[in-house]
Prior knowledge:
The complex is a heterodimer. By secondary structure, chain A is α+β, with helices and mostly antiparallel strands. Chain A has helices at about 10-20, 30-75, 95-100, 105-120, 120-125, 140-160, 180-190, 195-205, 205-230, 235, 245-290, 320-325, 335-355, 415-420; strands at about 300-310, 355-370, 375-400, 415, 430-460, 465-485, 490-495, 505-515, 520-535, 550-565. Chain A has three domains: about 95-205, no CATH class; about 210-290, no CATH class; about 295-565, Porin (Beta Barrel). An eight-stranded antiparallel barrel of chain A has the order 1-2-3-5-6-8-9-10. By secondary structure, chain B is mainly α. Chain B is built from eight helices and no strands. The chains are: A alpha+beta, B mainly alpha. The interface between A and B is large, with 42 and 49 residues. Chain A: Keywords: Membrane, Transmembrane, Transmembrane helix. Chain A: It holds the Pfam family OMP_b-brl_2. Chain A: InterPro entries: Beta-barrel_OMP_2 (IPR025665). Chain A: This is PorT family protein.
Amino acid sequence: MSSAANDKRGKLEEEFQSRMYDAEASPSQHLWDRIDHELTVQENGAYKQHAGFYRQLAAACITLLLLAGGLGAWYFSSPAGTEQPIATVAPATNSGPAATLSAPSEEAEMAGAVAATTTPPKQAERKAPAPGATEINPAAPAPAALGAIAEASSTTSRSKTGVTDATALPQPDAGNDPVAEMAAVTLTIAETKTPDAVEEAVEKENPLILSRSLRQTIAALSATEQQAGNSPALLQQPFAAKGAEAKATDDFRKLNEQVMAHAKRMEEEQKARLLAYNEAAASKKDSEKENSKGNSRWSLGMAYAPGYFNQNIGSSGQDMSAASDQMSLMPSSSSSASISSLYMDEAREEYAENADPGFSFGFEAKTGFKLGKKLKLLTGLGFLQNTTRSRSSYMVQESLGNSYARGFNSSGPSTVFIPSISSNLAADSLYVTRTPEYKVNQRHRFLTVPVGLQYEGNMGKDWFWYGGAGVAANILLQTTILASSAEVEDVAYDLQDDSPFRKLQWSGNVSGGVGKRLGGNMSVTVGPEFRSYFNTLLAETENAPLPQGRPYAVGLNMAVNYELNAGKKSR
Amino acid sequence: MKLFTKPKSDEDKLIEGCIAGKREMQRLLYDLYSKKMMVVCLRYAPTTFEAEDIMQEAFVKVFSNIGNFKRDCPLEFWIRKIMVNTALKHLRGKQLLTVSHEAEEVSNLASESSSLTGYSLDELLSMIQSLAPRYRMVFNLYAIEGYNHKEIGEMLDISEGTSKSQYSRARAILQGMISRQENNYKNVISS
């Protein structure tokens, strides 16, 4: 503002300026409320402008989560029999290793699958019930079908033992042919797996049931509308009433008018409610802020961190010949033992070579406390699951020894990993045999207690960057070793079990990324995270034939943060 | 790390809080300047109601644009400028800046020796508010805000000469008002 032409300024100008320039007058008490309201409306408008972006972001996150979840579910459930309980695996009874562990018949499975897919549901429905199979009763389909499934599944388990007992099955030429037997079993399952088919049949046989219930529903709705005084005449008539077409145009117009009027009323009511809400919110705001000033250091947050976990099996450079030396203690007089020794070396090498990183995810609920303006201390509680994948073409059976596995029915065949983690390899206790390649998933579940520091810096009005580091105490809740082959036992070590894995595992993590402040004290952050464990997962690595390294995980950390009573958009 | 940085003043903290959208900081800024700015708005608006409307609109602009404040002038000056511009826009929108000739008849009643010491703020405001909108604008901008006629001409989209002539009329009207007030006062005393 430049100075005015002072040469023309007289006493009047000077006096007016001196009296008026710094004069003060109190505005109305409600003026701030009006400004506050307008600012709130502006912020909401700005929020709505970005709502599309946030919706797309949320949709993308949900899609990613669903994909990750679906992938995880498919990954863990796709191998048939992976989740099969130990009890379904028959104990080995034969002495010879090859004879004991009969290879799973792929031909039988394929034949069964073909039989199941080629049997049309109608055909299965119409087919006369097999002797021993339960007849489908439309009145009570579920128990009958379940019974049949149970019987069929017990037949399945019996067939795996090699005992031919197919009394419940039609067996024209099956005899002892395992291919035909498996096909018959699967066919029976297909027959008995008919609750859906029964429902379909009920619907087909009684087509009037649904339509009748629809009419009843419409009639009930119509009666309700009539009681409310808004009933159009059209709704009171049955759907199939003759003559309805003639009145349809007029009735529809009336109905349309009524609906439009109702919608208009609803819209007006909504606007009135919104206005009332905004005014109430604006009047409450001041008092809320006064109360909030004391607690603005605290925040709550939740984080989801998917990633890849590498257990580092076979990467520590540990000499695998030590294990071979152990295995050489096996009795030389037994030829089968010599074969087992040879197989064991190959099995361990194969297992270590095929060990791949697996999917890892963690959920954390955190509390934050601001130590400074930009530095935050975070701690909380979380759940973490790490997975390691491998493949193997060998099965191992222990008849004695292995203090870890003894309590878990390890007399059945197991993956090579089980005896490998044992430090007590009894020379005469192992039988190793080749088998078609199967997948092995090693799953570790932890309860985590993280503690960390996070530093935030502003990138703009709403955006910020962050960097953080911390440590976490990971308490091992469960370890599960899952094999995709039905012939190989799954092993689980729970919290109270004597596990070869460390009960308490410490890890350190660093992360960084960007965040966005949303309205209402909320903020979201996303960025990469690296987590490294301070020790190997196995408690005693000296005797472990498979070399063990320190595991690590790389992934993405997505978090939502809520600042407690820190005021709108506070930092 | 902050050894060589200048410590932040209260005004800096206030501005940063407002940029961050903290409502309590915005309230603090409003409390600091609302009284002065109310007088500014009252000088330009014909009524208190319209003055509050202008002030509301102007403060919303202040909070929305405070991130653009360059800090090359005092904050109060910047806020005052927004108030004045908002008032001009408000009156321009209402087409109140047409010249009124109703007050020209009193133009030559001016008395340069008049003094304002005996007048209250309300009385002075009433005098200014009673001016026709265009005269009020020019008088406020020239006599109180300190703009020159060239600047006023650019702000009001009129020529420098028009600004001068309108100002001289406004001044004459005010002096006439003051003279009449003084005469009335003298009459009351003598009677």
